[in-house]
Each structure stands twice: as structure tokens, then as C-alpha cells.
Amino acid sequence: MEETPLFPGESIKATVKDVMYICPFMGAVSGTLTVTDFKMYFKNVERDPNFVLDVPLGVISRVEKIGAQSHGDNSCGIEIVCKDMRNLRLAYKQEEQSKLGIFENLNKLAFPLSNGQTLFAFNYKEKFPMNGWKVYDPVSEYKRQGLPNESWKISKVNSNYELCDTYPAVIVVPTSVKDDDLSKVSAFRAKGRVPVLSWIHPESQATITRCSQPLVGPNDKRCKEDEKYLQTIMDANAQSHKLIIFDARQNSVADTNKMLLAGAVRIADKIESGKTSVVVHCSDGWDRTAQLTSLAMLMLDSYYRTIKGFEALIEKEWISFGHRFALRVGHGNDNHADADRSPIFLQFIDCVWQMTRQFPSAFEFNELFLITILDHLYSCLFGTFLCNCEQQRFKEMPIHQNLKELLAIKAELQKRVEDLQREVATRASSSSERGSSPSHSVTPVHTSV
């Protein structure tokens, strides 16, 4: 029988023969189940072509024991509910469960964070010709849009994530706004998420800015700095004396879902036809806001409809601006009923797919590209969608990613130092035995690594 294909860094944890997969289309299929630290791999070699079921553990939402009496008195079963809407059922002999602990293995490996382990992405050892962490450069993206200019500046006031810990280090704000005023505006906005520029029209200079809701409260609290800040955003667009504020806070989740594309069209129309700047916000500015701004930008800017541009759009509007991927997807967590879980990014991709169906020639990519993105939203094979914000991504992840490499390098250097010490000691001993000249000296070797 052929061996289970493995990624670099992937290892097999359990293999069970005579497992029955209850396929909804083909009925019961018998084969061998292999569980690794990345995937569940089921294969039947008796069929032509071979039947293979390859499921990344990250896509599993929950694992439950079920009865399997119809497949034998000594059988037991498992139902695997997946985040991509698949439900998988397996049946196997009771003695195999007792011997190998299939249910326990799946529960432990599918939810590593709940079991004190790390996600597979930290153990993945594949070498790629391109550094994926450098696909998106914020300064280059803003320069592509013609920024900075006389009205907008590229600011690093948040370089240490002190202004807003869920915002990127590089943001674009009005040129005339001082850092002190920006701090006051931040205090008036939920989670400190001040209005910052996402996109600027190359001709009219109308802008899309994004933020969180103002903390008005029951007493209609006001903030002069916040009002002045919004006035500055409006004044930056000389072609209009209006500023449209799109409030995406939801009264009904179902209604809001239906309004996504319609809302994005309205934003794009205000920018393109009305030459009017818009401010988009929801409650915290990382869910509905990201959906609306990115969809509107996709409609307005053909660059974002290329493969490279779409990657930059996701990196900018979703990842760097703090969409909470870890919480919304629930990576490695066994609490499938967590209220923080929500298919926000999936809804965005579905809207993009609908646009590609209506205007296929306007996009450089098709649904296969979108499906691949969604596959790895759940797979935990790469680090792209693992964190809740840029600060968490860049301050925590590289430490874990590089720790083993650094330790290996240190061990190698230490070994070289020890070899040099032995070599020097041998030479010194040989010189002493030969009665070397008093003027001859041995250069000391520094041993600190």
C-alpha cells in the first residue's frame, strides 16, 4: 500500500485499517485512516481510481462519538463536523478504538491550542522561492495610490502600536493633524480605531476612510478633536463639500448580510459619480467595515482585481487592519459554540465570487483562486490567517517561527567553538612537547555565543 503523503515537518500519529467512511454519494467505503499532526487521510485502494479523503485538521469544528450499530455490533463511529460545511462519518471496530484511541487522537490534534500545543504552521518546513511575509508593503501600496500628497501623509505614529493596538504600524492620516489631537480622537473611538485612509481616487481625490464607532454614550458625549478631524477629511477633497458617513452597525444580521454588495455599490457610486469622500464604520471597525471598504475598492480600482492586487487588498484591509481571524475562525480551539466565531471573511469571498460571475473578464483570477484562499483560511498550514491583528502577527509569530532555527544555529556555532578549542589545545600541547620558542604564542578563542 502506498504511504501517506506528508509535508515537510509533518508526522504520522496513528494509522487504523478497516475503517468505514460513510460517503453521502457512494455509500460505505472501506479503507485505511491515517491521522497526522496536520491532516486526517483516508484511502481506499480497491476502487479504480483510488478513493482519497484528505481533510486538514484545522477545518474540523467538532468531533463527536456516534452509534454505528448498522455496521456491526462491535462497531463504533465518529462524526466530524467541519468549518467548510462538510459532515464526515467514520465507523470502525471497537477494539481498534481501544487500542489506538482514534477519537482521542483526533480531539487532541484537531484542537492543539486547547491542548497546550502549537498550530501546525509553526512546524511546517516547506521552502518557498518567495518570502510570503513580504508580499504586501504598506508604503509601496500607498505610494501606488499617489500618497503622500499635500492633504494626506504616511504616518508612523502607531509604529509601536500605542495609538491603537489593532491597527497597522503604518497608517495614512490628514497632513495637518497633530499626534496629540490624534490621541484624543483615538480615545473617543471604540478600541482606539481612528478614521484612517484606505483608498484615494486618483483624479477627484475623494477618499474611503475607515474607523470604529464614536463613543457617544447615553449623554451624547462630544469630542471637538474628532469633529475637527472629520472636517479635515472633508476639506481634503476640494471637489465636494460633503462627507458621507456609512454606519454599518447592524440591526438585523440577516438584513445586513443581504445589503453587503448593495452597500459597497453605494460607497463606490458616492466616490466615483458623486466625487464625495466617505467614512465607513461598524461597531469595532474590523468586521462589516472591512467587508464594505474592500468590496468598494475592488469595484473602483482594477489593480485589486489582479492576483497580486487582491493579495494586497486582503493583507491591507483585513490582516493589517485587525480582522480577528483567530477568534472568528476559532483556529485550534475546541469551543465550537464560541460566540466570537463568525463567517465574516467567507461572506466577503462569496461577494467577490458573485462579482467574478457577473464580470469574469474584469478579474485576473477565478473561483479556484478564491477556493484556495478559503481552504487555507481553515487549514492552519500557513501563518497568513492565524492572528487577530498585525501587532500579534509580527511581534509574536516570528519568535516562534525562528526559535528552532536560532537554537539550531546556536548549537552549530557552539559545536564549532568547541572544535576550535580542542584544536587549539592540541596545538598547544604539541608545541609544549616539542619545546617551542618562548616568543611563540597561541591566540585565545572567545567562547561566548
UniProtKB/TrEMBL annotation:
Which enzyme class, named as a word?
hydrolase
> What InterPro entries does the annotation carry?
GRAM (IPR004182), MTMR1_PH-GRAM (IPR037857), Myotubularin (IPR030564), Myotubularin-like_Pase_dom (IPR010569), PH-like_dom_sf (IPR011993), Prot-tyrosine_phosphatase-like (IPR029021), Tyr_Pase_AS (IPR016130), Tyr_Pase_cat (IPR003595)
Origin species, per record, is: Ailuropoda melanoleuca (Giant panda)
Under the heading SMART domains, the entry gives: GRAM, PTPc_motif
Q: Where is the active site?
A: 282 (phosphocysteine intermediate)
Where the protein is mainly located, per its record? cytoplasm
- Which Gene3D superfamilies does the record cross-reference, listed alphabetically? Pleckstrin-homology domain (PH domain)/Phosphotyrosine-binding domain (PTB)
Q: What is this protein called?
A: phosphatidylinositol-3,5-bisphosphate 3-phosphatase
Q: Binding residues for substrate, per the UniProt record?
A: 282-288
- Region entry Disordered, spans: 424-449
Supply one GO CC term from the record: membrane
Q: Which CDD domains match?
A: PH-GRAM_MTMR1
Q: Which GO terms describe its biological process?
A: phosphatidylinositol dephosphorylation
Pfam families, sorted: GRAM, Myotub-related
Q: What is the lineage of its organism?
A: Eukaryota, Metazoa, Chordata, Craniata, Vertebrata
| UniProt entry keywords in alphabetical sequence | Cytoplasm, Hydrolase, Lipid metabolism, Membrane
User: What's this protein's family per the entry?
Assistant: Belongs to the protein-tyrosine phosphatase family. Non-receptor class myotubularin subfamily.
